[in-house]
Write a structure and sequence with these properties.
Elements: H1 15-18, H2 25-30, H3 48-52, H4 61-64, H5 70-90
């Protein structure tokens, strides 16, 4: 009886592909240097938004077509909030 995980001698996976060689000097020269000390760790999951200071807001497609960019959408929402605050103060 054959072992369940026994590999076939004609397997396409070679021992060379399991042990990759070091990258070539050319490919290392193409990679940009990254200073990890300057990187900010954002984390993962639902708490990421607290660190970035932004939250995702989904708007209707008809509303989204009225604005060219996220900044225009934010500006319109800020103006709406200012108008709502003004109405509350003045009655």
């Amino acid at each position: 009886m054959r072992a369940r995980w026994q590999t076939c001698p004609s397997s396409p996976v070679s021992s060379k592909s399991l042990n990759p060689e070091e990258p070539s000097a050319e490919s290392l020269a193409e990679m940009p240097e990254v200073d990890l000390a300057r990187q900010r760790v954002l984390g993962r999951g639902r708490h990421t938004q607290r660190k970035t200071g932004k939250r995702a807001v989904f708007v209707d497609e008809a509303i989204a077509r009225r604005f060219d960019s996220d900044s225009e959408t934010e500006e319109a929402l800020r103006a709406l909030l200012a108008a709502a605050d003004h109405v509350r103060k003045t009655g």
